[in-house]
Write a structure and sequence with these properties.
Structural class: mainly alpha
CATH topology: Four Helix Bundle (Hemerythrin (Met), subunit A)
Radius of gyration: 18 Å
Number of domains: 1
Largest sheet: none
Shape: elongated
Number of helices: 5
Strand content: under 5%
């Protein structure tokens, strides 16, 4: 009984860390690389799956940007100016990734690989920019 209580407490602690989004930039980098590889692996026949996955990636990035916006709102002076600049850059790259995702959704079989690669590259660039912004915030 005591072991079960200890185990459930440990599980709850691990879940709370995950739920709070306590990830390292290494985790983010690894996830971005995996996402890039996953997107590039989709074939034109799996276009719907690719689009759903791409939309999830963009939504996840929106949450990351919103979190940075909250932190930037608390910053002052030069740090605030720098974070606002980083956020402007992130939002521009997010818009480009969304545009590339839209192009991917409209692409026919002949243009699929180019459109898919365009989104994958835009997403990878977006995540690299996000990682740089997080490092500057520390």
């Amino acid at each position: 009984m005591r072991l079960e209580i200890l185990a459930s407490g440990l599980l709850a602690a691990l879940l709370s860390c995950t739920a709070l989004g306590q990830t390292t930039t290494g985790d983010v980098s690894k996830k971005a690389a995996e996402a890039w590889t996953t997107v590039k692996s989709y074939t034109a026949e799996r276009k719907d799956d690719a689009m759903a996955y791409g939309q999830k990636l963009v939504r996840d990035t929106d949450r990351q940007i919103a979190s940075l916006e909250k932190q930037a709102a608390k910053a002052t002076g030069d740090a605030k100016v720098q974070m606002e600049r980083e956020l402007k850059d992130l939002k521009a790259k997010r818009a480009l990734a969304a545009k590339k995702l839209d192009e991917m959704g409209k692409a026919g079989a002949g243009a699929w690989n180019e459109a898919k690669d365009g989104f994958a590259d835009a997403y990878k660039d977006l995540q690299s920019s996000y990682q740089r912004a997080v490092k500057k915030l520390k």
